[in-house]
Amino acid sequence: MKKVITIIIIGFIAGLMAIGFSDATAESAQEHAETKIDPKEIIFEHLGDAYGWELPFNHHRRIPLPIIVFGSDGLHCFSSARVAHGHEYVDGNTTFVVPTEGDYKGKVVEIVNGEELVPFDVSITKNVLAVFITIALVLWFAFALVGWYKKNPYKAPRGTRGACEALVVFIYDGVIKSTLKDKAKRFAPFLLTVFMFIFVMNLLGLIVIFPGGANLTGNIAVTLTMAVLTFLVTNLFGTKHYWKDIFWPDVPLWLKFPLPIMPVIEIFGIFTKPAALTVRLFANMMGGHMIVIVLTLLIFIFASVISVAVGGATAIVSIIFSVFMLLIDVLVSFIQAYVFTMLSTIFISLAQEEGHKAHDKKEHTEIQHLATSETN
Amino acid sequence: MELFTPSFGLVFWMFVSFALLFLILWKFAWPVIMKTVDERADLIDKGVEYAQQAQLQLENAQKSGEEIIAAARRKEADIIREADSLKAQIVEEARANAKEVARKEAEAAKISIEQSRKEAENSLRQQVGEFALDIAQQVVRRQLDDPKAQQALVNSLLDQVEKQN
């Protein structure tokens, strides 16, 4: 059964590659002469979102994905293949187009009286589909483990399940339990989900062909959502002491009255924490992707600007560096998922302070110190 | 730039899917995983503790076993020593008894020997007297003149006596 599934998946990917490749060779013959390389365009296209999923080796053929928009006259739902290459599509009475240039470049817009209007867009884009794939994978990992435990409760799993368990236990014991102590059970499900989700997203982003390749955690919408969730969990479950520390901290009176300097700083701090989470994950993952893309582009830039021979020579160096960068990105994928989870845990634990005893305060400052040093 | 402005659609789907994933895992996966991992850790801890205790008990058992064996050896030695002394005592007593008995017997034997010697002396004296009387009678009766014949007679009589004894 397992083998059959593996063969089907590999066959599917190989089929996609074959379609893409045959198309590309047919096209490149005629288009080769007029190709001009625009690095910025290519980089941002690869880093950004799209309405279709590119096939390997091919720049034009895409797997079509559903576009779902609330236009001026209600819900519209159609395939992205209909608006590919800047074609206009008329759905009912409304015309839709994905402009190839202008302010709304690459976004679905509605054309009303010759003007472009941005509809309310909840399309299943490449990134959204990648999120779904990630969720399927995380669910699969988690339930493979659960299934194993139900069958053999006191036996350590091996293989993939063992790796999943090692990850979960590493985060649960090493980060969550050691920071949150007796409250670990309460917040562990959220934090473990965050970790597994980000980790799988990071790794999927490193695979260059179909099920991967979406620059998910390098997209600010994704990291922002994760950070906002941490923000919500932190503040909704915050203790009285936490709020008291924000509005009336233990500092000399003149620092909080009549001018509330410290409270303002503390309130500012509430929002800088998720902002730091957002930007750290986003910048790290996007940077990694960007470096690999730039290294690959160097080959073509040199080939077109100087000569094909120089391009060929660059290829060797570029490939070596790309592989090196991708390997580092595998490490970074884990580290960033880990750091995100750890910081979330620390933020949550800061909001869980009860602060009745003196030593609690000491611990508090220690954790805060750790948090700030991590943020930097 | 598009890269730095989050698109609403992605945030929306992200939020919905993450919420769904979280709910499913929260309800069905994490509790099971955490519980099992904790239980297994407890089981392993208990196993180690049990093994340590068993080791300790084994060591104690060995120690007490050795003690018991040593005590038994000591007792054995005591018993042997006691038996030895008892044996010596018994032998000593037996020897003393035997000596006493032997002495008594020897005394009794001496007395009876003395008696029988006396009886023998008495009977010898009687017989010698009788023989002397016999010989004297014969000698007197024959009254031989010939001293040679007397001598022969005496000799034959003495032979007779010798034969008789």
Topology:
The complex is a heterodimer of chains A (376) and B (165).
Chain A: H1 2-31, H2 39-47, E1 52-54, E2 62-64, E3 66-71, E4 74-79, E5 88-91, E6 94-97, E7 109-112, E8 115-117, E9 120-121, H3 126-151, H4 159-180, H5 184-206, H6 220-236, H7 240-247, H8 261-305, H9 308-350, H10 358-375
Antiparallel strand pairs in A: 1-2, 3-4, 3-9, 5-6, 6-7, 7-8
Chain B: H1 8-142, H2 147-164
Question: How many domain units of chain A?
Answer: 3
Which word captures the global form of chain A?
globular
Q: What is the total tally of β strands of chain A?
A: 9
> Which structural category fits the helices and strands of chain A?
alpha+beta
Spatial strand sequence of the major β-sheet of chain A: 5-6-7-8
- What letter string, H or E per element, gives the SSE order of chain B? HH
Tally of helical segments of chain A: 10
The number of domains of chain B is: 1
Descriptive account of the structure:
The complex is a heterodimer of chains A (376) and B (165). Chain A is of the alpha+beta class. Helix content of chain A is 64%, strand content 9%. Chain A contains 10 helices and 9 strands. In chain A, the strands form 3 sheets. Chain A has a 4-stranded antiparallel beta sheet, with no helix packed on it. The longest helix of chain A has 45 residues. Chain A is globular and about 75 Å long. In chain A, 31% of the residues are buried. The model of chain A has no long low-confidence stretch (mean pLDDT 83). Chain B has 165 residues and is mainly α. Helices cover 93% and strands 0% of the residues of chain B. Chain B is built from 2 helices and no strands. The relative contact order of chain B is 0.03.
